[in-house]
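It would be a great kindness if you could assist me with a short task in structural biology. A protein sequence and the C-alpha cells that stand for its backbone fold form the material at issue. I should value your view on which stretches of the chain appear to form regular backbone elements. The record follows directly beneath this note.
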Amino acid sequence: MGKPVPEAEEVHETPGGARYFGVSLDHKVIGVQYGFLSMITLALGGTFALIFRTELAQAGLDFLNYLQFNTLIGMHGMVLIASILMGIAAMANFIIPLMIGAKDMAFPRLNAFSFWMAVPGTVLLVSAMFVGGFETGWTAYPPLSVRGPMGIQMFFLGVYIVGWSSILGSLNLIATILMMRAPGMTLFRMPIFAWAMLATSIISTTATQLIGLSFQMVMFERLLGMGFFDPASGGNPILFQHLFWFYSHPAVYIFVLPGLGVISELLPVFARKPLFGYRWVALSSMGIALTGFLVWGHHMFTSGMEEYLRVPFMYSTLLVAVPTGIKFFSWVATMWQGRLRFPTPMLFVLGGVIVFLMGGLTGPPSGTVSTDLHLHDTYYIVGHFHNTMFGGYIFPLFAAIYYWFPKITGRRMSEKLGKAHFWLLLPAFLLQTFGQMRIGLLGMRRRIADYDPEMGFTFSNQLITIAGFLVAFSVLIFFINLWISARKGEVVEGNLWESRSPEWQIPSPAPLHNFAEPIRVVGEPYDYGLPNSRYVETVRQPAGD
C-alpha cells in the first residue's frame, strides 16, 4: 500500500519562491506551476506563428523550406493546445478548492504527479523540431504521418503523455467537486466556474483516450508494421479521422468551457447583479459537453464519408448553438441595467464575449454541408477557429489572471498596463481574423507555405502578419506587467472586487491551509445587490477543540 495522504496541517511547504520549483502537494503551488509552464508554451507557440507568418507576408519562399514551414505550423497548433490544457489546469487547481471551501484537491499526490507528467510531455513535444520535424500539421493524418521523419514520433509521444496528464487531472477535479464541497453547497449553489470545470473534466476523461489511441495506432504502424490505416494491408485511413476528431472536436469545448465559466463568474461581480438564469447557465455547460460528442463528423464532410451521415452531423453541429446561446442571453441580461464597472478583468470579459460571438456566428457555415464543401481547409476556418479560441479561452484567461492575481501574490496587477494590453490586443486580433476569413473566402488554402502573387492575397497576408506582431506585442506588455506586479504591485489584502465567492473571504495571498475555520454555504452564489444576502459564513469551532 502507498503512503497515506497527509492532512493539510501536516504539510510543510518550502517558504518563498523556491517551492514553485520542486514537488509540492499544495494545490495552489501546483496551480502556479501549471500556469508558469502554460505561459512558457504560450510564448513559444506564438513565436512559431510569428515566424511562419513572416514567411507568408509575401509570395515566394524567403527563409523557410517546406519542411520547416510545415513543422512550425504543426508545432504552433499542438504546443498551443498543450498550453491551453495546462492553463486550464492552472486555473482549476488554484481556484476550485478555494471556491468550494475545500482544503485541497481530493488526491494531492495524484495532482502533483499529473503536473510532473506534463513537463516531460511538453519537452518531448518540442523536441520534435530537432529530430527531423514533421510535415503533417497538428492533425498528423496518415499515411503521411506513417512515412514521416523521427520528429512525428516525438510529437506522438509528447501529445500522448500530456493527454495522460490531462486525464488524471480531470479525474481528480471530478472527485474534488463532487465530494469536497463545503456544507450547504448543493450542486445548484455551486459557483458557475465549478460547473464549467466539472463539464470540462467529464469531456476530458471520456474523450482524451481517443486521441491517445489514434496516435498510438500510428506509432504501432510505424514501428511494428501494423496496417491499421494502410489500405494495402486492409486498413482504412478514414478510421484515423473518426478517432482523432471524436476527441478533437469535444476538445474545443475542453478549451472554451472554462473560459465561458470565467465570463459567467466575473460578470455578476462587475455588474453588481445576480447572474441571470443561473440554473440554465449551469446546465448549459453539461449540454455543451453532451452535444460536443455528436458533432465530430462535420470535420469530415470532404473526406469521402458516407453521404447519409452528413445531414445528421450537420443538425447535431447546429444544435450546439442552443446551450451556447443560453450563456450569451444570460450575459446580456446580467449586464442589462447593471451598475457596470470596467477594471481590466471586466474589459477582457467583454472582449471575450465579443470575440467568441464572432466565432459563434462564423461557425455554422463550416458546419453546414453545402458551405463547408467550399470553405473546408481554407483560411476562413483558420479565422473562425482563432475567434473561438481567443474568445473562449485567451481573453477569459487574461481576465482570470488579472482578477485572481491578488489571491496568488497579494498584489494587484497594473491597471494602466492592463488596459494598454487590452486595447492593443482586441483591434489587432480582430484585424487578423477578419483578414484570415477574407482570404479564405477568396480561396486561399490553410497550411501552405507559398501562394500565387496574382491571386491578390499579398496585401491581406501582410495585414495579417502586422496584426499578428501587434498581438504579440500586447502579450509582451502582459508579461512585463506580470513581472513588475509580482515584485512591486499594489499590495492587496482584502476583498478587492467585493466578491461573494469563498476565496475572497480569506486573506490574500491565500494561506497555506486555505480556511482557518470551516465554512458553510447559507445562500445563493450570485445575489449581488440584494439586501441582507449572504453566501457563506464561518463555522465557529467549539472552545477546546
